[in-house]
Each structure stands twice: as C-alpha cells, then as structure tokens.
Amino acid sequence: MDLELAPEHASFRAGVRELAQGVVQPLAAEVDRDHRFPREAIDAAAQSGLLGVLIPRRYGGAGLDALAFAICVEELAQACASTAVIVDVHTSVGTEPILLFGDDEQKSRWLPRLATGELLGAFALTEPASGSDAASLTTTARRNGDGYVLNGTKVFITNIGHAGLYVVFARTGPDEKAAGVTAFLVPADARGVRVGQVFHKMGLHGSPTGELILEDVSVPAANRLGAEGQGFTVAMRALDSGRIGISGQALGIGQAAVDETRALMHDRGHEQGDDFTLADMATRVESARLLAYQAAWLCSRGLPFTRQASMSKLHCSDTAMQVALDALQIAGAEGAASGSPFERHVRDAKALQIYEGSNQVQRIVIARDLLRAG
Ligand SMILES: Cc1cc2nc3c(=O)[nH]c(=O)nc-3n(C[C@H](O)[C@H](O)[C@H](O)COP(=O)(O)OP(=O)(O)OC[C@H]3O[C@@H](n4cnc5c(N)ncnc54)[C@H](O)[C@@H]3O)c2cc1C
Question: Each residue of 15-62: pLDDT tens digit?
C-alpha cells in the first residue's frame, strides 16, 4: 500500500496550484460579488491543458487519470469554487460520456474541441419535475427520418449559456422509466436551443446555472450517444465519476477553510476551544481526502468504484459544509460579513450536498450496493 502521490501526480498538483493561486484565487471574491463568469480563469485553465485532463492525447488532451482529475478540481476549488465547478462539469459529466460511450466519429469530432476549451461541455438531465427521480424525465426525442426532434425544458444546468455542447437526456421509447431514455449531443447553436431563466443561487455565483429550452431541435442520428434506451446508463456512469469531481470541489473548499482559519488564528490569537475546532476541521478534511483518492484510484484502475464514489461525495461534501461553518464560527463577525472568504465558503459548500445526486440519494446508492453484495 502506497499513500504517497506518484511523482507525475505530485508535479501535476504543483502546476495546477501555481495557476490556481496565481490566476484563479485573485479573482474569486470579485467573481462571487459580481455573479460573473470567471472568463480569465477558464481561459488560463484551458491554456494549461486543464480542460482536457481526462481526454486521451490523440484527441489533444492530457490523457491523465481520475486521480489527476480529482487533484485538479481540488486545487481549483481551494482558490475559487465557481471556477472549479465549471471545469469539473465540463470535464466529467460534460465530456466523459463521449469518452465512454461515443463512437470513433463522435470522439474525433468533439473531443479535440472540448480538450482545448474551444467548446465548454454541459450535462442536461434535471427537469422541473424530475430531479432525484431522474428516470421520470419527460423531454422527448421523436424519430424523424435519419434524425431526431427534441422538445423539453431542462433546469439547473451548469455552464448554461457558456457551453458549446450539451449532453441531453430525452425519452425515445414508450417505456416510462429508465429504459426509454436516450442520450444526445446537442450543440448550443442548433436551431431551437434557447437559454431560459438563469438562476440566482446562494453560492457558486460565478458558475452559471439555468434553463435549457429545446423547441423542435433537430439532431442527426450521428448525435445520438450510445444506443436508444441506453441513456440512463450513460447518465449514471457519468455521475459515478462526476462524484469524484464533486469530492475534489469539497476538499478544496474544506482545505481553504482550514488554511484561512489557521492564518486568522496566527494573526489574531486563539483560545484552546478554537484549537480543538481547528484540529477537528483538519482531521475531517484529511480523512475525506483519503476516501476521495481511494475512489479515484479504483476508477483509474478500471475497478468497481460506484459505492466508493458515492461514499466519497457524501462524506466530502458534508465535511466541506461542516468545516466551512466551523471556520466561520471561529472567525466571528468578521467571517459573517459579506465579502469575507469564510461566508463565501459556507454559501459555496451547500450546493455540493445537493447536486450530482443529493446526499440522501448517495445513501440510497451505498445501501443498495451494500445489500446487493450480501
Ligand atoms: C448549483 C446546482 C447545479 C446543478 N447543475 C446541474 C447540471 O449541470 N445538470 C443537471 O442535470 N442538473 C444539475 N443540477 C440539479 C441537481 O442535480 C438536482 O438539484 C438534484 O439531482 C436534486 O434534485 P431536486 O433539486 O429536484 O430535488 P428533489 O429530487 O426534489 O429532492 C428534494 C429533497 O428530497 C430528497 N429526496 C428525493 N428523493 C428521495 C428519496 N428517494 N429518498 C430520500 N430522500 C429523497 C432529496 O435528497 C432532497 O433533499 C444542479 C443543481 C444545483 C443546485
């Protein structure tokens, strides 16, 4: 058993940290205050190859593994959680479905553009009446000659308005639940694709989240990802590894809260009660990191990792939330003031317990897997 990062992962972390601390972190407070897309941060990440971390070299990516992906998102989130979720969603659920389920033509056509950031990826599963129960979605894809016509509304879509390509889940078959769902690659500039309401959220202000409206959108059969009826499998597999990315986001927020609390205590002085809280915070983040890296390690080796990814997402996001609250408590009124990183971490951490499967849904996944194992 070796718990030390391999030299290539360690040097990758150092490179991402330099970019995150040098370019991304200085923008974080302003991006949060102004609810603005962190364009400079995303461009810098693209130039450093961070939008193609998981994409093989032959398609212009870095060809790295799930552990590198987790490290990348963790380092970005430590600097700016909004930037991290944009990169995370692009890399995992926005791009990985093509890597895992795309044919050669789809890979050659889309992956090089996603790897450079020419196109930002997004994942459109949730609907107004279909969140945790994703199999009940009602967006339709009707066969029309050699293609399909899509109609429906997706909500809470990350990277809305900035994405060039959406992985959209729609119902093709008469089956009411999962078996009737199919995945499609829908370019943002296809006729009939519209951005609806862009939501104001309590946190992650730099990460746009909103409605994707599909009105008689024609896509060729070449844009169908996987077979008809395979869409739910595509979505669930994408979310499995997506949860490694959410774990990275949570670790970054948690570590930032620990580091900022430590710095504050150095400057301001501290009581023993604060010391105990800081020790608990750091211990929680460190233990969550082990779970996240274990899930990434299993995924990188092609081993079953669904249960560990859910455990990791559950534990890391709960940890980030708790640690952010503890940090704010230690900081006191100064931490609660708007513009303080302490209150930003609390607001940013909350969504992690909800998206890519709420933490209740993670418990369902974990229990189901445990009970299946006998
Ligand atoms: C910031 C943000 C970004 C997002 N980005 C995307 C995106 O890019 N693409 C996308 O498709 N979606 C996205 N989502 C949507 C997200 O995935 C859903 O919010 C999530 O799946 C939960 O669905 P819901 O909000 O409809 O809650 P509901 O499913 O209505 O659940 C409400 C509550 O009930 C609980 N609950 C539901 N079912 C059960 C059950 N069976 N047992 C126990 N408890 C249950 C839930 O845990 C939750 O606490 C995003 C959401 C947010 C907040």
Answer: 999 999 999 999 999 999 999 999 999 999 999 999 999 999 999 999
Ligand 1 pocket, 255 CB below 6 A? no
Residue 316, sorted as left (phi over 0), alpha (psi -120 to 50) or beta, turns out to be: alpha
The response to whether residue 170 sits with its C-beta less than 6 Å from ligand 1 reads: no
Per the DSSP assignment, residues forming a β-bridge with 210 are: 157, 198
State in Å: Cα 80 to ligand 1 middle. Answer: 23
Using one digit for the tens of pLDDT, what is the confidence trace for 272-317? 999 999 999 999 999 999 999 999 999 999 999 999 999 999 999 9
> How far, in Å, is the centroid of ligand 1 from the Cα of 305?
22
Q: What is the pTM of this model?
A: 0.97
Cβ 141 vs Cβ 148: under 8 Å:
yes
Given its phi and psi angles, is residue 313 left (phi above 0), alpha (psi -120 to 50 degrees) or beta?
alpha
Per the CB < 8 A criterion, the answer to whether 283 and 326 are in contact is no
- C-beta neighbour count of 38 within 10 angstroms: 25
Structural domains of the chain, with CATH: 7-116 (1.10.540.10), 121-229 (2.40.110.10), 232-372 (1.20.140.10)
